[in-house]
Amino acid sequence: QVQLVESGGGSVQAGGSLRLSCAASGNTYSRTCMGWFRQAPGKEREGVASIYTSIGGTYYADSVKGRFTISQDNARNTLYLQMNSLKPEDTAKYYCAARPRFGSGDDCSPGSIFRYWGQGTQVTVSS
């Protein structure tokens, strides 16, 4: 089992920054892939960024490339999402998620189904 607890959401003006944190606990193998997802009202859930925790390989959605950075602190079992140059369209509830990595061909991209989810943290960007 894996437990994930997000924090760091809030309200910010366009152009501002926020850093989300995800405290993870539980089976290490079950969280070899970790990611951030978001869902805005009336929209489908979107994979924002993901990371292969063993080597740090990352993936970003085109909509956030160059603005968001996913990182991890293995000593603290914490995943981060640094969000810069925020836009109103980044407004959503952000979720941390985890799953095992399934073999050498698995790049941990958010397009796959993640098994474990946090409760989410709200990010609101005003214009």
Characterization of this structure:
By secondary structure, this protein is mainly beta. It is built from no helices and eleven strands. Strands 2, 4, 5, 6, 9, 10 and 11 form a seven-stranded mixed sheet that branches. Strands 1-3-8-7 form a four-stranded antiparallel sheet, with no helix packed on it. A hairpin with a 4-residue loop joins strand 7 and strand 8. It is globular and about 45 Å long. It starts with a strand and ends with a strand. The model has no long low-confidence stretch (mean pLDDT 95).
Describe this protein with a few key phrases.
127 residues; mainly beta; seven-stranded mixed sheet; four-stranded antiparallel sheet; 11 strands; globular
- The low-confidence parts are none
Q: What's the helix count? A: 0
Average residue pLDDT: 95
Q: What class do helices, strands and sheet pairing give?
A: mainly beta
Shape designation:
globular
Number of strands: 11
Give the helices and strands as they follow along the chain: EEEEEEEEEEE
**Rounded Rg:** 14 Å
Major beta sheet summary:
7 strands, mixed
